[in-house]
Request: fold
Amino acid sequence: MTLKRLSKGRVSFIIRYMFYCIMGKVVHYEEGKLVVQAGGVGYELLVSNNALARLGKIGTECTVYTTLSVTQDDVRLFGFYSKEEKNMFAKLTSVSGVGGKMALQILSSADVSTLAVAIVSGDSATISKVKGIGKKTAERIILELREQIDAVAAGGASSDLFAPQEEKQGGVASDAIAALVSLGISKTDAYSAVAAAMKKTDKLEQIITLALRSFDR
Reply:
């Protein structure tokens, strides 16, 4: 079937999932943008400050995870330093009123682990600090994403995966696992990473940070 015979919505869906990642060399960067050369083509990607800090060195061979956004008026290719950042971007843009530009601003203001902690703990203040995001928008983001994470927890990422200890510790474990699963990490891997992290700390933010660090490629 040719693209001419497909509806605009169907074409947008197909194009959006054409690119999973780009593997190549960084040839240019500037604030909010990164150019990666792969197969003789220079791909311009819109990226967060955190992604730029990790990837923005000329000549660096890198893997950039991508999302292609197609709207009626524009086509944009977004780049991410990890699968977890890409999944957080998808979560943020699933919230009503949050587009790609706003999602990148949020990802530039805090790393993925900090955002995950803010979501599971209902800390809208962290997100409301982002330029251009008011209190009501931050609260809506927290509310909608917290509902998604709660649904994940209800599906089995719970504290009973751990040997009975303190009730508080079980709750922290449950929140950490649910946050990781919401970022696209399997329950089995999330459980293992959280269990290892909890041998070093019982603080939610540190647990998530250590767990995510174990998945760094």
Remarks:
- Confidence is low (pLDDT under 50) at residues 1-15, 157-168.
- The chain is about 50% helix and 20% strand.
- The longest helix spans residues 135-154.
